[in-house]
Amino acid sequence: MTASKALLTPDNCALVLIDQQAGLAFGVQSISQQTMLNNAVALARTAVAFDLPVVISTSATKVYSGPLMPALRNVLPQHEILDRRNMNVFEDAAVDAAILATGRKKLLFSGMFTEACISFAALSAQESGYESLVVTDACGGLSENGHEMALRRMQGHGVQMTSWLQVLLELQRDWTRKSTYDAARAIVESNGDGYGIGLNYARDML
Q1: pLDDT in tens, the chain (206 residues)
Q2: Which terminal CB of the chain, N or C, has fewer other CB atoms within 10 Å?
Q3: Residue 90 belongs to what H/E stretch?
Q4: Residue 59 and residue 195: Cα distance in Å, rounded?
Q5: Are the C-beta atoms of residues 44 and 149 closer than 8 Å to each other?
Q6: Where do the coiled-coil regions begin and end (predicted)?
Q7: Helix, coil or strand: residue 205
Q8: Cβ of 172: how many Cβ atoms within 10 Å?
Q9: Which helix (H) or strand (E) holds 147?
Q10: Residues whose CB falls within 8 Å of the CB of residue 40, separated by 6 or more in sequence, listed in order
Q11: What is the DSSP letter of 128?
Q12: Which domains can be identified in the chain, with CATH numbers?
């Protein structure tokens, strides 16, 4: 059976983290800040487990937003962080070049705010020939309505919506893939809420 071109694989996608900074998280109202951070960390751990290229960009680190959140820095300690002034990462030459250098055409976006930096990036990526996927539960909006309207606008331009757990399961797909099994299961157990509790329970019962 021929593999689906629509599905994510460890060889066809890259993760772009945008403005995952505490100073911006204070303004998030579309999801609890702790849940968003948990999901972003799970997504970053997934990228590491499956060896995805990761591009990290921040903005206004010394003025307002602060550095990349420590929980994410701990997951990605060796990755370069590209600070910028533009809201749109594709209008920053260094970030644009870093994304191009991944060689991947499917881009996973996570960050803040959905109404601005995430939607600007995803829409620009679509226009530039990339396939954009917004990891909606690892993004934060300034309001529930603003977050939802931004998602709808992006969908209208062909951007796809997904969740961090769907990304992990899509990359793993076969639990007999031993090379990534332990790492994938560990992420679900520690970050996957009820599903993770269930896996822990199953481990204890066997």
Answers
A1: 566 889 999 999 999 999 999 999 999 999 999 999 999 999 999 999 999 999 999 999 998 899 999 999 999 999 999 999 999 999 999 999 999 999 999 999 999 999 999 999 999 999 999 999 999 999 999 999 999 999 999 999 999 999 999 999 999 999 899 999 999 999 999 998 766 656 666 665 65
A2: N
A3: none
A4: 34
A5: no
A6: none
A7: helix
A8: 21
A9: helix 144-156
A10: 17, 20, 69, 72, 110, 111, 138, 164
A11: T
A12: 13-174 (3.40.50.850)
The active-site residue out of 17, 117, 118, 184 is 117
Long-range contacts (CB closer than 8 Å, 24 or more residues apart) made by 65-68: 65/19, 65/21, 65/22, 65/23, 65/24, 66/21, 66/22, 66/23, 67/21, 68/17, 68/20, 68/21
Q: Is 139 a catalytic residue?
A: no
Q: What is the pTM of this model?
A: 0.94
What is the H or E stretch that residue 162 is in? strand 160-162
